[in-house]
Task: structure prediction
Amino acid sequence: MLWMFLVSLLLFWLPGIGALVAGIVGGMKAGGIGAGLLAAVLPGLVFGLALAFVATALSGMPIFGLLAGMSGLLLVLLQIGPLLVGALIGGALA
Result:
């Protein structure tokens, strides 16, 4: 998961290819297809939960936290396509 984050951060200026390369590297470092997919999806889940917690804490209304967390998770999952494909390829190469 850390490798995917670092490579994604370094290659952010390559919109599709950067995430694909990060997925391949992360999938290879994870050691398998299942672990690579988990490493690709887990940051999105953590981001959604953190956003829900912060929105609830700032507004004092859990429904706002729920909506913010779900929409943050949706936005992350919409952008995760090349990372998942790269994780599949990297996991298969490992």
